[in-house]
Design a protein that fits this description.
With 432 residues, the protein is of the alpha+beta class. Helices cover 47% and strands 11% of the residues. It has two domains: 292 residues, Calcium-transporting ATPase, cytoplasmic transduction domain A, CATH 2.70.150.10; 40 residues, no CATH class. Strands 1, 2, 3, 4, 5, 6, 7 and 8 form an eight-stranded mixed beta sheet that branches.
Length: 432
């Protein structure tokens, strides 16, 4: 009986599509089971953890490299095979597609339909006014967003990072694993480090790191001396982490790649010390590159402002679809002149539609973008300005990763807004 009732209720919810309003949650007080970090990282995480368990000689042998680096021919071959060491980022749209997206919204489509009907009814004045309003709204948005995209690309072009690598001029046949890890071997002539563009780095390169350097790719540490890495961009922790050459023990690899003491990652930087490291993953195959690719592949959901404008647009469209036929039929049957009835119904539709709304909205957002640009803020999408205006409080974790990785205590207050030293005591205890 119970099973039949359960199945009947499930069928009732499924037919009415009500299951979308329900979700399964863990029972109160019962901790939910969490999958291990290694299991949730996929192939990339498993490869990095495997690299952390290898000694330097084994890592060099697996990547068919040497402690004194790759030769120029092999590096060029790997660059052609794997592609440049670049992280995926949002690429600018072609001009025509950007212009089309600036135009494409329900309100502009409604105004375009009204302009077309006004043109058919020989109402030149209404046609010109509507076309000018839609055109100015689209052009202002297109110009302002295009200017912001060009500014962002200019900033990106100004950052021309290089990496210090060891590259041999001629190919040398790989020797034994011991010879691979020993650059002082007589068969391995000394190689001077050289600067190359960051995008030309490939897996198997050996890079030299020193204080102030950005980590150019995911690397396995080969040699290290007092090496401290700032991983705030990846983990959110502001304190630098010391890195070593030693192989990670079997149990330590269950904590995830970012916790491995012999791996360094693209997007982090060297605080102090020196090291040489073997590049194991570049570009989109790196840990940072995987995160960036998933972020750029996610379509931005419309904000509250866009949803509000679209809601008003569809409301006007539905109202016009109901009101215009009623006016047409009533006027046509009462006066008998269907042409005049059509023109009157069209006039009602034009009168119901605020033609200036797209122009006012776009010009207001463009003015906000100009004001923000004077404060060194680049607004790539005008609609994003509303998100700033709707923000009351920005909450970050204790490291302030979203700001400048520095925090300053302005006030300590209790739940009633009164200054309280007890809050500081609890914060101090919670820091342990």
């Amino acid at each position: 009986m119970r099973k039949a009732l359960t199945q009947g209720f499930s069928t009732f919810l499924r037919r009415r599509r009500a299951k979308q309003h329900f979700e399964r949650r863990p029972s109160p007080g019962v901790p939910a089971a969490r999958p291990s970090t290694a299991a949730s990282l996929g192939a990339l995480g498993q490869d990095l953890l495997a690299t952390a368990r290898e000694d330097p000689a084994a890592a060099l042998l697996r990547l068919q490299s040497r402690a004194d680096g790759l030769d120029a021919t092999e590096a060029a071959s790997r660059l052609a095979r794997d592609g440049p060491n670049e992280v995926a980022h949002e690429k600018p749209l072609p001009g025509w597609l950007h212009l089309w997206r600036c135009y494409l919204n329900p309100f502009n489509l409604l105004l375009t339909a009204l302009a077309f009907l006004s043109f058919l009814s020989a109402d030149a004045k209404a046609t010109v006014v509507i076309v000018v309003m839609v055109g100015l709204s689209t052009v202002i948005r297109f110009v302002q967003e295009g200017r912001s995209h060009r500014a962002a690309e200019s900033l990106r072009a100004m950052v021309s990072n290089t990496a210090t690598v060891f590259r041999r001029g001629a190919a040398v046949a790989p020797a034994t694993p011991a010879a691979l890890a020993n650059p002082a071997n007589p068969a391995n002539p000394p190689v001077a480090p050289q600067e190359i563009p960051l995008r030309e780095l490939v897996a198997g390169d050996v890079v030299a790191l020193s204080a102030g350097d950005m980590i150019p790719a995911d690397c396995r540490v080969l040699t290290a001396r007092d090496l401290f890495i700032a991983q705030a961009a990846m983990t959110g922790e502001s304190l630098p982490v010391e890195k070593f050459v030693q192989v990670s023990p079997e149990g330590a690899t269950s904590t995830g790649p970012l916790e491995q003491r012999n791996l360094v990652f693209m997007g982090t930087n060297v605080v102090s010390g020196t090291a040489t490291a073997l590049v194991v993953a570049t570009g989109g195959r790196s840990y940072f590159g995987t995160l960036a690719a998933s972020a750029t592949a996610t379509d931005a959901a419309p904000n509250a402002f866009q949803a509000g404008v679209n809601s008003v647009s569809w409301l006007l469209i539905r109202f016009a679809l109901v009101m215009v036929p009623i006016v047409l039929l009533v006027n046509g049957f009462t006066k008998g002149d269907w042409l005049q009835a059509f023109l009157f119904a069209l006039s009602v539709a034009v009168g119901l539609t605020p033609e200036m709304l797209p122009m006012i909205v776009t010009s207001t957002l463009a003015k906000g973008a100009v004001l923000l640009s004077r404060r060194q803020v680049v607004v790539k999408r005008l609609d994003a300005i509303q998100n700033f205006g709707a923000m009351d409080i920005l909450c970050t974790d204790k490291t302030g990763t979203l700001t400048q990785d520095r925090i300053a205590l302005a006030r300590h207050a209790d739940a009633w807004g009164q200054d309280s030293d007890e809050v500081l005591n609890f914060a101090f205890l919670n820091s342990f």
